[in-house]
Amino acid sequence: MCDEFTAADENALLSRRQFGMIGAGAAVVAGFPGVAACAAEKHPATPLSEAIVSITTPDGMADALFVHPASGKHPGVIMWPDIGGLRDAYKQMARRLAADGFAVLVVNQYYRSAKSPVLATFAEWRTPEGQAKITPMRAQLTSDAIARDAKAFVAFLDGQAAVDTARGIGSAGYCMGGPFTVLTAAAVPDRVRAAASFHGAALVTDQADSPHKLIASTKASFLFAIAKGDDARAPGDKDALRAAAAAAGRPAEIEVYPAEHGWCALDAPVYDQVQADRAWARMLALFNAL
Fold it and tell me: pTM score, two decimals?
């Protein structure tokens, strides 16, 4: 869950997958050629429009990448990055989702402290310098803060000509961003109608504002894609999510994937393209119903 105890899992795979250059942010981030080629093959004629935007929130000015097909109106999606924040890997993921027919706002969740990129690659989080930089920023991301941000981000999307306001808004989140998707759906229930969490952290806690307890406050459908290691450490979480969704009458697809925590992030040492593509397909199925 994007914290220290998953480092051993990632380190064990790092050498096997030859991510030796990732710490320097070299070829892995520079274009993600395999992913870019796959997107181009699937969407050869989908020109995109994108811009770095500034969004006024109650806590300041948030920076984000807004990317969407160059013509037409499309469902809006808010994308929450992992603990490494908004960087090239997530910009590429947002472009891929935009090419699939969505107006995507991928946000810098650390805007209260710094503009993006706070870190260039996920691997920087594993350095003492990266952790020293991120830890105080992370502490500001309370449930209330994310709810305030979600309302501002939804309002931004609803004000864009490229967004089809007759359809619902989706939210996708990775690792630390996973629970933010539930918080987003609970903050703006009449607009956020789908939430997809990939290897999400702290989805089930004993706190009053635990994401699984907030499902009842939403009008959304859910996808919870869980890493096998996270499930091994907390096997009851998937059952708690299922029970909460059932009690709330909310549709929820909950699956443990045969992949390590972080497998969907393009620049993560444990990135697994086969399982990431499978999870992506399930997200598209969810968002296409918006």
Answer: 0.88
DSSP for 106-170 reads: EE-TTTTT-PSPS-SSGGGGGSHHHHHHHHHHHHT--HHHHHHHHHHHHHHHHT-TTB-TTS-EE
Task: Give CA–CA dist 186/240, Å, rounded.
Answer: 18
The residues that bridge with 4 in the sheet, in sequence order, are none
Q: Which amino acid is at 207?
A: Q
**Is the pLDDT at 2 greater than 80, yes or no?**
no
DSSP 171: E
Nearest 10 degrees: Cα torsion 29, 198, 99, 52: -60
Give the three-state DSSP class for 197.
Answer: strand
pLDDT in tens, 170-197: 999 999 999 999 999 999 999 999 999 9
C-alpha 136/C-alpha 128 separation (Å) is 13
pLDDT class of 97 with cuts at 50, 70, 90: very high
Q: How far is CA 228 from the centre of its chain?
A: 18
Reported as a pLDDT band with limits 50, 70 and 90, residue 44 is low
Q: What is the arrangement of strands in the sheet containing 76-80, beginning at the earlier edge strand?
A: 48-57, 60-69, 103-107, 76-80, 169-174, 192-198, 221-227, 252-257
> Is pLDDT at 276 greater than 70 in this prediction?
yes
